[in-house]
UniProtKB/TrEMBL annotation:
Pfam families: SBP_bac_11 (PF13531). It comes from the Bacteria. InterPro entries: ModA/WtpA (IPR050682). This is Molybdate ABC transporter substrate-binding protein.
Length: 233
């Protein structure tokens, strides 16, 4: 069985699929790429059994008939966090706190940063929208650096290309050369729900649905939380 996902969930999904196999369910070979690329490949007709992407992207694939809308299941809640370079860090630990006191403090941090890193995924899109709504787009123009598809913002931070970066917390945890400041405050939080669905081209839709049900079950909550994901309501 074959699945495709965005990079943000690859580590969690590797462990989740391993747990599913241990539970006697079909083994799944996972390929993780940039979310935009993953959605494009599914839309272009490449054969997969399971598709695991941000809920919005998966919804668009369902509307176009590329995944079975009836099988869509929310799996993981991801919160966007902020980070800065720190060469002394070998593996960035999970930071449960909040990076800034409120949206006003975040705006100050954006104005003070030399170069700001953001992702190609939903967190990056939401950050740009928020900057636009705050009227900072012109002021920050030239200082915004988008990571290449499939490349974590942490790589831009550790290399010194940016001095403030934003990405989903799960993508920052464990990365070298960065210090996680914490998630964004509630008044400007950027949360993403990742979901899964059975591809309409699946050769074993019943088996794929069984695996997906296991991933969304209470039996996997500890795995999801270990990878810095919450459980969607």
């Amino acid at each position: 069985m074959k699945a495709i996902s965005s990079m943000a969930t690859r580590h969690a999904l590797t462990d989740l699929f391993a747990a599913a196999a241990q539970a006697g369910l079909p083994r799944v070979r996972l390929e993780s790429v940039g979310g935009v690329d993953a959605a494009s490949r599914v839309a272009d007709g490449e054969l997969f059994d399971l598709v695991l992407l941000a809920a919005g992207a998966l919804g668009r694939l369902a509307d176009a008939g590329h995944v079975d809308a009836a099988t869509v299941r929310p799996l993981m809640l991801s919160q966007t966090a902020a980070a800065v370079p720190d060469p002394s860090v070998v593996s960035a630990p999970l930071q449960e706190g909040i990076a800034f006191a409120d949206a006003a403090q975040l705006r100050d941090a954006l104005r003070s940063a030399r170069r700001i890193g953001y992702s190609t995924g939903p967190s990056g899109t939401a950050l740009l929208r928020m900057i636009e709504e705050w009227g900072l787009a012109d002021e920050l123009d030239g200082g915004l650096v988008q990571a290449r598809s499939g490349i974590p913002v942490a790589a831009s931070l550790s290399s010194g290309d940016v001095d403030l970066g934003f990405q989903q917390l799960s993508e920052l945890v464990g990365q070298p050369g960065i210090r996680i400041l914490g998630r964004l405050p509630d008044d400007c939080a950027i949360d993403t729900v990742f979901a899964g669905a059975v591809a309409t081209a699946s050769a074993d839709s019943a088996g794929a649905a069984e695996v997906l049900a296991f991933l969304a079950s209470d039996a996997t909550v500890a795995i999801r939380r270990r990878h810095a994901f919450g459980v969607p309501a």
